[in-house]
Queue: 2 jobs
Job 1
Amino acid sequence: MTPPLSGRRRWLVRTALLAVLVLALSACANDAPQDTLDPASSFAEELSQLFTGVFLAATAVFIVVEGLLIAAVLKFRRTPGDDSFPTQSHGNPRTELVLLAGPIVIMTVVAIFSVGTIFEQFDVPDDALDVTVTGQKYWWAYSYPEQDGIAGGEFTTANELHIPTGETVALEMVSQDVIHSFWAPRLNGKRDVVPGRTTTWKIKASEPGVYEGQCAEFCGTSHAYMRLRVVAHDRADFDHWVAEQQQEQSVPSETGDPEVYAGYQLFEVKNCAGCHRVDGVYEVVEATRRSTPTDPAAPNLTHLFSRTCIAGCTISLPEDDEPTARNNLEAWLRDPQSKPGSLMVIGELSETEIDQLYAYLRTLD
Amino acid sequence: MSTSASPTLESTPGSGHHSATGLSNAKLAMWAFLGSDCMLFGGLISTFLLLRTKGVVRGPEVKDLYDIPFTSVSSFMLLMSSLTMVLAVSAIRRGDLARCRVWLVATAVLGALFVSGQVYEFTAFYNEGLGFTTNLQSSAFYVLTGFHGTHVGVGILILGSLAAMGDRDGLGPSPAETVEIAGLYWHFVDVVWIIIFTVVYLIR
Amino acid sequence: MALTDERPMLELAAGDPVASPPLGVFRRPQAITGWRSWFTSVDHKKIGIMYGASAMAFFAIGGLEALLIRAQLAVPDGEVLSAEAYNQAFTLHGTTMVFLVIIPVLAAFANYFIPIMIGARDVAFPRMNAYSYWAFIFGGLFLYCSVLLGGGPDGGWFAYAPNTSVTWSPGRGMDFWTLGLIMTGIASTVGAVNLIVTCLNMRAPGMTLLRMPVFVWMSLVAQFLLLFALPVITVALFLLMFDRLFGANFFNVDAGADPLLWQHLFWIFGHPEVYILVLPAFGIVSEVIPVFARKPLFGYYAMVLSGIAIGFMGWGVWVHHMFATGVGPVTVAAFSLTTMFIAVPTGVKIFNWLGTLWQGKLTLDAPMLFAIGLVGLFTIGGLSGVTHSVAASDTQQTDTYYIVAHFHYVLFGGSMFGIFAGMYYWWPKIFGRLLSDRIGKVHFWLMFVGANLTFGPMHILGLQGMARRQASYSSGYGWDFWNLVASVGSVVIALSFLTFLYNVWHSRHAVTNDPDPWDGRTLEWAIASPTPVQNFDAEVTVGHLDEWWHRKYEEGADGVLRRRDEITYLTPVRDETPTDLSTIHLPSPSYWPMLSALALPIIGFGLLYTYWLCLVGGLLLVGATYGWGLEPSVDPDAGHGHGHDDAHDPPAGESSPAEADDELAGAPR
């Protein structure tokens, strides 16, 4: 029953304050590629500022309330043996009204400053670059329709979304199966991708670079492994990338590299072509809504080796490190179930077959 | 619901009256339950209204199958059962147990006719190609009207039990209130049907 | 569901001389002591204890699931759980803590203390009360059968369609989840009807609504929320069940369905649910703080009104769970505003607690520490809630660990701290044993430090972009350190719970017969510890808020408060001769509540495996309902009680079937 010593109490308070300080500092940790408070676009910047403003207001209230609480606990302790009563106050309507006014005023101020941002966030400019985003278990597909800024025909890629720096990109988003959520934290908040609906979102990057993101709505076994990457280029580089993506792949010649040709044939024999498209080579697969896990909906592999990641961006395909890329891709071909919940089915492959498939896939650059 | 809209919320000290609100526990409980049930039907009706706007992928639309004259007649029977229910309550209030039992049975029979109508309607719809799993509307329609039909069915069981127990003096120390509480439930089920009939069948 | 709620009307045969044994099946149970009595008891106190014990068992299970989750996430690329197992673990953790821990443990306190605090002898419908408990425990066990029968549910406690469809969740787990929650929903609905009628109708003379203790008020508001919120999720669960078991199309996008229907139904229930979980805990600390501050609650009316206001406003904020779904900007803006302003009545509560503490004479015993812990931690949860209400920036925080931190500060820092405050406060009244205050303080500090270590870092993780519900993460996102800290914190929380269990074990010798160890203010402290079976010997007439305190203290002519010379307890206390129970009218034990609740899981198994079992369950349900209806509340053959006839001879026209049957007065006349 002995109350803790007040010295110990003070020590506790000091430790707590120190802990808060450490927390605050570490929130600015480096090496956090999805840090929402390290914005890389005007959209994310605005959200970060909005959050910080409200957070500071909340912190002020926090300090007042917790300060009063700690003060009350320190100040109004009953000394043992003291059986007297404090003033029996039942409350004071005037104080209570003042206290009621406090939160009302604070919330009104927050409301005034924040409501407009909701409408801003929903406003997607007409001249934005349109990209159709398709979410499915457990990867993202991106289609670039022909429009101002993209001449020369529609094309589709997966996992990595390429955008021109400084331009607003409008995402028209659909889902093939369950609800997903598109989120690249440094570029903007998240927006759900709902089957049966088309949702719209916008992103922008102020600097060229690679921005990490992920599916943010629980979508099944492999939800944690449904990552994404946004690559921002200068406009010229972007145009170059677009032109490259628009080119169809060519059918390997029977007289060329025999390993590549064998891989090309295996692609059909092993029924890879039943789900994966390669523009100009294997185009049978029609994109359909997925009603069963076996419906064909797998990434379009055209220009596979222009991408830096596969399998929902959980396996990297480094551009400048061919051996690692080869190791990673071959490991994936050996066991696509190594990613939990992966819907890719390939069957047993011999090492020769894996080498042949790799040789063919490597030509898709 | 009006659980709190009771005559007196404060009991008189020392009066020895057991109910602080003036309503008996059982009646108050029935009101509370009916309040809860309102939300159940609210959810089901909203679901139907939402799904009705979505059109159908296959099979017929429910609205093309309604036989309004037929359903009007069965709805009328359910409405009339509210009248017989009122007569049953009024009979038991006069202490006329025999008359009360007659009206209870009449109410239950009208309710049973309504349910039979519903069974007939379901069969007709099914024969027209609208099964439970045919499309969105069919699932929503059968679940909504089925939940209501189940409520009517439970009501029939209650009325039947009351009528059967009447001769064993089984209506408790206050038969009038027992019947009245059963009546509350029955009228609620009728009112819900009026809403369903209006928004599901008549307003398209 | 309808059947179970119709019973009050079917309870017709009160006083029927041939009704025992009803239907001639069983001899009516008569024991009110011994282990068998627990299965047939209709005593609100025993049922309260069973609720509490079951909920604490589920708390241990839900806690183990939390430990598994934290073990998996302690380091990057964790290998403790597979992704499938992880998804089941967080689904079960959320479902268990919400539906099988906090709701029932608050129901335990409500069951045990509402009747006593309002001066009643039992709840309005003692057998329905037993039914609620059995339906809850059978529903909970049914839900957990999934783990043994082919895998737990894996769709999250929020179970967003269409990920929970048979296509995407083909196991039986979600079926067990759906049916189990329908059963616990029935339990809570019946319980809500019962407790609402109890609060409104069973109050002792003079116990006006505005003399009810704040705990009773907050529980009453929560029961109203349950009453109206549960049917909405019941609808959603039925639709999901029809989809999964019978091929309906409610969430079938191929047939044109809109998955947002589920989210609306779920959150129209789900947001009031948050207040269902936290308001009674607020009620508990509103009882504890005045007692340990030796002064009345600051702003009783403000406290009650703000609770009611939260109850109403809680219905108008559900879309804030859906800010990222792309519902239109006007909807988002409207719900953003309502969400901001629900902070106002919540703030009122915090200020009133501070006002009560201020200038008090605080005794920092374990119950008070937990109560103060609630005020401190809930403030954090409330304020992070305000940051969530800003819809635009919430698109960054929603579905991240920031919101996990937010609702754990609300539900762990709020509800669980309140619950443990109640445990320490009321333990001597319930069991006649004192929990050690010294161990209690260790418990508090472990739990307080553990909660902050676990949930504090989650704010940072969320801001750094860690999404929730991810089964693992890679190094290189800046998440490694704080995840490890959170996992260490979860072990500290586990230790704190073990400390509590040790304290319970330790208390077995700390027998106390002190009826009023804390110098309490409300009626439960005016009777013996542990509570005697009859609660009160005679009808209580209430003249004040904090009635018991007013019976103990008076203001002298000099304006100084002093203890009255003579204080009359309302039952024999300490070593006084116990009351002769043969003169007291108590409800008799009954098998029927348990049997009719047992029908629910049988029907559930029938739906999943073979429809024949549904027939068995249905027959049991109907049979038990009639058995119940034909059985008088008070057994005429029982050894105690002085029979129906002289207990009930009300003037014609004033009586009711319930009065003769289930309703119990504060005292015999």
Job 2
Amino acid sequence: MAGALINVPKEIRRGEPFEIKTLVRHPMETGYRRGASGEEIPRDIVNRFTCAYNGQEIFSADLFPAIAANPFISFFTVATESGELVFTWTDDAGKAQTETVKITVA
Amino acid sequence: MDRHPTRRSLLAAGAALPAAGLLAVAMVRPARAAAPATMEAAVREFVGEAAARQGRVKLEIPPLVENGNSVTLTVSVESPMTVTDHVKAIAVFNEKNPQPNVAVFTLSPRSGKAQVQTRIRLATSQKLVAVAQMSDGSFWQDSADVIVTLAACLED
Amino acid sequence: MSRSAQRVTAGLAGLLLIGTAASAEIPEGERRSGFDYMSRETQAMQRDDTANPGMLWVREGEALWAKKAGPAERACADCHDDAKSSMRGVAARYPAFSEAAGRPVDLEQRINECRSERQGAKPLPYESQELLAITTYVAHQSRGLPVAPPRDERLDAFRERGRALYEARQGQLNLSCALCHDDNPGRHLAAAPIPQAHPTGYPLYRLEWQGVGSLRRRLRNCLVGMRAEAYPYGAPEYVDLELYLMSRAAGMPLETPAVRP
């Protein structure tokens, strides 16, 4: 099961920075834990997160096992024009999850 | 065998058992921790030949946390965030998790405001360092100490 | 010995000594949610829906609500329509008596009854992500509403059994639920404050679990902490305990999805 939650302010004004809050479902398995019978649980984390604003990457993060399960990341960007924000989380298995949010700039 | 233990014997058992369980937890957690030297090496790798100066960066984290599994951390940097003067990256490091790296965030003039927030894991009480890389090639840093308390109840 | 281990040893020994006094229920005006015992930071995480990780399960549950399941090709929404109105207040009234089961069932069991009877689908396993998601979504529709146990005399005997379980000493430490949560709330076990044990936020996101879990899972943690044998997941004891706990929490607002350390 996967899923993501993105939150941007309702009113976004041209030329001003606004906050983008992101939450994604992921166990962020560290690779340092052992299962009930002593076996090592292999590492599986989201190691990269990117945000593109109308096709151009405006923010990214390289993540390590110290990031909590169900990663929360918030950051800012300047409102330039209405359009699309595309968020991508890529994990160790190479699986990418994408979420798109439309924004209207006043 | 005494099938009806006295109150005294129960008290003695009660006092000994939780201590054993909690000590096991206390000892397992930091066992594979990175040493402070490892954190310094990781910071060195990020800043290269430059020296990271104190200032301009603000690392905010609660000084005392009730669970190390999810601790909110905010880093903000004083910067006009213009094309000629902006923050290029913010990196966060820890002292006593198994690995010294926490995250590296890449920013640009389009960020508008140099502030990021995330939630991190802390294996035990330790120091954290946030380093900002500026567009002029300088590095700035801030650090914070966090105390992580232990949970009393265990998962089966 | 670490300082916290010393503290918990002293704390538990203290509880055992105090335990001679009779347990007293907490008066209505003095009832406090576990929320009140948390740090400012964890409270902030629960309050802000854009930061509360439990909302990921709410969102997943919303998707499952509309998804057709079983040979009947029927979704929850096909019968119950919009959960925002049809499920409002429902979680505040559970556990409730089930004619089919001949005894009280909790919200999860009620959802599984619906699955087998109306959808013809297999019941979802306890603590499965799907069951947690649907339950969290349904319970979320009652957030802010007061806990309102139904007046149904068929429940009384089960609720009394729950109270007896709550007050019974068990496990190697010879503790009862009441000894901690009625007699010593606000005091500490290690660094963790002892709450009054009101189940007002379930299913909830527990930082210790790094995910959402049920009241059953939390009760199991308590039993393990008391060095008692936890009942198996489907055991009726959990429903009886929940019946009693909900009557003890009557009038308190539901918080699903709550966040706890």
